[in-house]
Every structure is written in structure tokens, then in C-alpha cells.
Amino acid sequence: MAPKNDGSAKKVMNKGAWTAEEDSKLSQYIEVHGAKRWKTIAAKSGLNRCGKSCRLRWLNYLRPNIKRGNISDEEEDLILRLHKLLGNRWSLIAGRLPGRTDNEIKNYWNSHLSKKIDQKGKTQEVSTAQETTSQLKTRAPAPMEEEGAKIVGSSEPTFDVNEFFDFSTELEWVNKFFELDENP
DNA sequence: AACGAAGTCAACCGCTAATTT
DNA sequence: GAAATTAGCGGTTGACTTCGT
Q1: Based on the domain organization, do A113 and A154 belong to the same domain?
Q2: A103 in the same domain as A175
Q3: Which residue lies nearest C6, CA-to-C1' measured?
Q4: What is the Cβ-side half-sphere exposure of residue A53, based on CA atoms within 13 angstroms?
Q5: Residue A1 domain flag
Q6: What is the C-alpha to C-alpha distance for residues A4 and A8, in angstroms, rounded to an integer?
Q7: Do residues A51 and A38 lie in contact, with contact meaning Cβ atoms separated by under 8 Å?
Q8: Picking from A85-94, A140-149, A156-165, which range would have the lowest pLDDT averaged per residue?
Q9: Is residue A21 a part of any domain in this protein?
Q10: A58 CB less than 7 Å from any atom of strand C
Q11: Do A32 and A120 lie in a common domain?
Q12: Do A141 and A160 meet the contact criterion of CB atoms below 8 Å apart?
């Protein structure tokens, strides 16, 4: 496609950390026009940012009811359970944690929980080293195993999620989870 | 106190899915 | 139905902070 005018005048977008002024501009624009058509928002709000960047900033920091930091034990437990079910489906997991964002959960997982599980896996690896593989095979398969296990398996340390959670007691909880999805 | 290593987290990138024209 | 545009996702990066020596 030929440039409409001098191509050398291509605008260079801002990158990196957002300033308070930029936040304010974005918030004000969205308050008036709503959070849709991010390219337009980026162009008309007076921000020298791309639409993607605006969307991310809004979703992760500026939108109302965002919780930041201090992930509670309950939330942590929920993240662990959901991750076991869904793998790295951060947006789905975030959807079950009001006020939390996919990015925050992803970061929390990568910096806190993955290590926790890694440690747990290692200690259990030692204690269950004698357990025969045949015992493991007789366990009930995890729901979502087909999809979830693939995803988890690609990035997880090598430990058996069946060891980490007792799926027999999880089934009820899992069913509730999917009921929620069907009836929003 | 100074320095390097490790940890944390905000933001970007590349890609796919969904929607619009 | 095809092409273009937009939205959304997950992985990765890099700047900053904290910790250990």
C-alpha cells in the first residue's frame, strides 16, 4: 500500500511505563466513550500509544474494582486448583478471581506458585519414589485431562498432578466450576 | 558500602479467534 | 464467502528492587 503522504513521517509510539498523566487521559476518554475500539481510543485520547498498549493498561490497572497485590490464601488455593484444571489458561483463571487480572495471576504463578509446586513435587518425588507406576495408573483420570494435561505438561516441572491434588475429592468442585461456565 | 545474582512485575510481541465490512 | 480489522490470549522481555556476599 502506498503511503498517503511522506512515509518518513511515520509516528513513533511511546513505549514503556505509563505516566500518571497518560493514565488520567486514558481513564477520562474511556469514561466518556467506553472501552471499545482501542485503536480509536489510542488515536483520539491524545495518547501516543498503540491500541494494544491502551487496552492492556486499562484492563490491568485502570479499570474499576481492580485488586492489586496481597493474594490471599483462598485466592492462592483457587489459582492452584484452576491451574491444575485448565493449565496456563490465565484469562479463564482470572475470570474466577474477581478483581484479578490474567497478567497478575500469570506473574504470581511464575514467581511464586510454580516454585512452590516445584518444591512440593521434589519432596513428593522422594517420598513416592518407591510407589509403583501401576498404582498411579489406577487413579481416576483428571477431568480436562486431554486438554489441560497437555498444556500443563509442556511447561510444568515433572511431577504428577494427581499427587498434588486428590481428584476423587475434586470432582464435585470441578462440576460446580463448569456449571458456572454454562450459567453465567 | 559496593556489587552481582536472583526475584518480581509491568509492558510488549506474536499469534489466533472473533467480528465487521 | 473473503478480506480486513479488532480483540484477546499466552509467552517473553527488560527495568527495577531485594537479597546475599
Answers
A1: yes
A2: yes
A3: A37
A4: 17
A5: no
A6: 11
A7: yes
A8: A140-149
A9: yes
A10: no
A11: no
A12: no
**Is the same domain home to A86 and A40?**
no
Residues A91 and A140 in one domain: yes
Instruction: Tell me the whole-structure pTM to 2 decimals.
Output: 0.70
**What's the total number of domains in chain A?**
2
Residue A6 banded pLDDT, cuts 50, 70, 90: very low
Q: Is the CB of A18 under 7 A from strand B?
A: yes
pLDDT for residue A131 = 47
How far in angstroms lies nucleotide C17's C1' from the CA of residue A156? 27
> What is the distance in angstroms measured between the alpha-carbon CA of A151 and the sugar C1' of C9?
14
pLDDT of residue A134: 38
List bases in chain C with any atom under 7 Å of a protein Cβ: 5-12, 15
- Amino acid at the residue A108: Y
A103 CB neighbours strand C below 7 A: yes
Chain centre to alpha carbon of residue A19 = 24
The confidence score (pLDDT) of residue A115 equals: 72
Report if residue A3 sits inside a domain: no
What is the residue range of A36's domain?
13-62
Res. A167: pLDDT tops 70: no
Do A43 and A93 lie in one domain? The reply is: no
- Which nucleotide is nearest, taking the CA of residue A107 and each C1'? B9
Report if residue A170 sits inside a domain: yes
* A65-78 pLDDT tens trace: 888 878 888 888 89
